[in-house]
Fold this sequence. Notes:
Blueprint: H1 6-15, E1 18-23, E2 29-34, E3 38-41, E4 44-49, H2 53-61, E5 64-71, E6 76-87, H3 91-102, E7 111-124, H4 126-129, H5 134-146
Antiparallel strand pairs: 1-2, 1-5, 3-4, 4-7, 5-6, 6-7
Amino acid sequence: MGILTQEIKDFVNKQRMGFVATVSPDNSPNLSPKGTTVVYTDEHLIFTGIRSEHTLSNLEKNPLVDINVVNPIKRKGYRFKGTATIISEGKEFENILNQYRDLGIKSKVKAIVLVKVNSAELITSPLYDLGLSEQEIESEWTQRYSSD
Length: 148
């Protein structure tokens, strides 16, 4: 079994929104939401390069990446640290692209980013430290989001 447990896999595949952090050439951070973040294997996450010029360029120079996948209502999620490989052609690219098409992705995909996960860590809101239950937090944030 890899680093990604079934619980983590289910969570990531349900959320699909990963916030991907890379390092720019001037060492400044680059944070980009990727709505195609899913589990590929027990040790890999993937996301697509659709509007990802800065992310892809940064990863070509420095493949280290940090990805946060968070449920905004339950205020919890996971932080993944890993090493990225960019795939932009070939059989593996086509196979993964077909999986994304099956998920309903219609946008032009320039590249697939394959992330070898080195660590996975649960992240939670400080509200849990105050003793609030998941149900209380979920109720509060559901109400906040639905009031707009």
